[in-house]
Amino acid sequence: xxxxxxxxxxxxxxxxxxxxxxxxxxxxxxxxxxxxxxxxxxxxxxxxxxxxxxxxxxxxxxxxxxxxxxxxxxxxxxxxxxxxxxxxxxxxxxxxxxxxxxxxxxxxxxxxxxxxxxxxxxxxxxxxxxxxxxxxxxxxxxxxxxxxxxxxxxxxxxxxxxxxxxxxxxxxxxxxxxxxxxxxxxxxxxxxxxxxxxxxxxxxxxxxxxxxxxxxxxxxxxxxxxxxxxxxxxxxxxxxxxxxxxxxxxxxxxxxxxxxxxxxxxxxxxxxxxxxxxxxxxxxxxxxxxxxxxxxxxxxxxxxxxxxxxxxxxxxxxxxxxxxxxxxxxxxxxxxxxxxxxxxxxxxxxxxxxxxxxxxx
Length: 361
Ligand SMILES: [Zn+2]
Fold this sequence. Notes:
The protein is of the alpha/beta class. The chain is 47% helix and 14% strand. The longest helix is centred in the C-terminal third of the chain and has 22 residues, at 333-354. Zinc ion is lined by residues 109, 177, 181, 225, 264-265, 286.
């Protein structure tokens, strides 16, 4: 039995997301959440997942969503980020089904000062729900990990109560992911805060579980956003197993992994670290930095290889100044952007392979 026996293709929400995550835990794989900033990057990720017969998570960060809407739109009161994430969501909804894979549509980190962005997306979810009986997005992330723990949990719970009637998933973060992402800079964070204690994870569970089962937790285990020199980051994925055991005992769960865990800041991690984390009930791993770089390499190599044709509209400089062949097929964005899509495609497939997310349909 494969995944398509239990969930449909296209954007999935609510219980179908739960079925997907349960299936992933049971079969010991995780799904990469690919940060996308354009229809081009969305399509590259979908194509890669389709060809490997895997489910996919597409996510928009606050800045990525603003870019999707267009840098020409001012982001006053999060207007561009709201518009861009909605535009991206509609794009994904329009095409995902045609790729024949289940897709989870998600929004990434939302820190306290960005809450108007989340409010805007939730309003769009509620409007969509009225019409279609499901929210526009599959899930959102709220990240109040920089705030005091009690406030983090209380505000997260408040938002979760708004999500619950739509069976909208909420991912939250407890403990701090190091490094810098989307303007949130934790480079100077206290090293201890990079490792979340199990008691804190249980506190989150206790607050959210009575509301609904549709939540996941990004607990810090030394993760850092971005790619740094080896040795800079000490990941302790065994902490995730401790959290699972701690919560299992507290709630007397039959499941060995009662928590849906999320792996942030995993760029540059070893395959061993990734496999270990997945074995401890991680269902989602964020991939951003590595696919950004991959997208660049295809474009970069194409430009460098064809420099003699790209410096002017007509003529190949390597053939002398008299050459007059037109270069349209080289400078057409569909040519050079496609090269970025191809290298991003390969990196998405590598992420899938690392996570055991291959041939799951
Ligand atoms: Zn993150």
